[in-house]
Design a protein that fits this description.
By secondary structure, the chain is mainly beta. About 0% of the residues lie in helices and about 50% in strands.
Length: about 150
């Protein structure tokens, strides 16, 4: 077993390495109250980097004006096994990935309804069974319309 590993049968906890990319394992040897020993099966584990979704910052838009695309990026976990979901987008804004299991998710479009929207983007890694979220506010202002000047005569 790796040096940093501890097995406490009373609590049934395995503590091991925490450095991403570390592969560890070994065989359990258990001793009971009568000093009889037994050996368990061989095991191994891999420590994956923490799953992170970044790039979600507060946004401002105007009804009828296309927004500059906002790109969110996934890091950590197992690249290539990501799934994205978004809730709370202003009407007219859509989300799309660069392809299946993409590490990037783009939000773009043209907002159609003024208001303040609480957007939550969820990133899922199907291999390591981890999920993380990023939340931000998207404020959409009404389009300004200049009134026609009245006849001054």
């Amino acid at each position: 077993m790796a040096d940093a590993s501890v097995f406490d049968m009373r609590r049934a906890i395995v503590i091991g390495p925490t450095t991403p990319g570390t592969v560890a394992g070994g065989t359990f040897t258990v001793t009971d109250a009568f000093l009889r020993t037994g050996t368990g099966p061989t095991f191994s584990w891999v420590v994956y980097p923490r799953l992170v979704a970044s790039g979600g910052v507060n946004q401002i838009g105007v009804v009828g004006t296309a927004v500059t695309a906002l790109t969110l990026t996934a890091t950590g976990g197992v690249p290539g096994t990501y799934g994205w979901n978004v809730t709370g987008l202003p009407p007219g804004i859509i989300g799309a990935t660069g392809g299946t299991n993409s590490s990037q998710y783009k939000l773009s479009g043209t907002p159609t309804v003024p208001g303040t929207y609480r957007v939550t983007v969820t990133l899922n890694d199907s291999t390591v069974k981890r999920t993380t979220t990023v939340a931000f506010t998207w404020t959409v202002y009404p389009k300004l319309v200049a009134a026609s000047p009245r006849n001054q005569a």
